[in-house]
Design a protein that fits this description.
Elements (H helix, E strand, L loop, with lengths): L1 E4 L6 E4 L9 H16 L3 E5 L5 H7 L8 E6 L3 H8 L3 H7 L4 H15 L3 E7 L15 E7 L2 E6 L2 H4 L5 H20 L7
Parallel strand pairs: 3-4, 3-5
Antiparallel strand pairs: 1-2, 5-6, 6-7
């Protein structure tokens, strides 16, 4: 068992030796979102980079996900982000591949390509290399859209957690992306 200290609160996120969330929070949020979307007849697609298909894997692990999940696109290179998702070269040149603007264009591209009502775009640096002083490992941008609404966040995991490894960054990103999706698809959840 290892603990990843959380800088924002006085608790740690616990992981088993194989890096699975002990609390099952990720599985719980995924199942809750998928079941809500099934009940509401919504569709979903993903455009992933640093999570490498993890979101798609989590979503499709929920029974019935085929009713809502249209496609999971893992576009790891800038070339594929442009070619498949329609991310503009000017966006990559001006803002970089690790930016809110790129994440937004990724989710928009996924929604356009698949015709899904909701889409998630994720780009960032999972490490252990690739980071810089300006954009350290744990820099992750997520865009979640539903219809005309969009949430885009810089997760800045490096500010929140210490001693992160690649698996932790990918899992924490997936969790936060699904929580963002839940905010859009079920805004009344907190009122229940």
């Amino acid at each position: 068992m290892c603990k990843i200290p959380n800088k924002r609160v006085s608790e740690s996120v616990e992981f088993a030796e194989d890096n699975k969330l002990v609390t099952k929070r990720l599985d719980i949020v995924t199942e809750r979102v998928v079941k809500y979307m099934i009940a509401e007849g919504m569709t979903l697609s993903t455009a992933e980079s640093c999570t490498g298909g993890l979101l798609s894997q989590l979503i499709t692990s929920v029974p019935g996900a085929s009713e809502i999940f249209t496609a999971g696109l893992t576009t790891y290179t800038e070339e594929m982000k442009m070619k498949i998702l329609g991310v503009k070269k000017s966006t990559l040149d001006k803002w970089s591949v690790y930016s809110a603007q790129t994440a937004s264009e990724m989710s928009l591209g996924a929604a356009r390509l698949t015709g899904s009502q909701a889409a998630i775009g994720v780009t960032g640096i999972a490490g252990p290399s690739g980071g810089s002083e300006e954009k350290p490992v744990g820099t992750v941008y997520v865009s979640v859209r539903l219809g005309g609404r969009e949430l885009v966040r810089d997760l800045a995991l490096y500010k929140e957690y210490e001693d992160m490894d690649r698996k932790f960054i990918r899992q924490a990103t997936a969790l936060k992306a699904l929580e963002m999706l839940e905010e859009l698809v079920n805004p009344k959840k907190d009122e229940d």
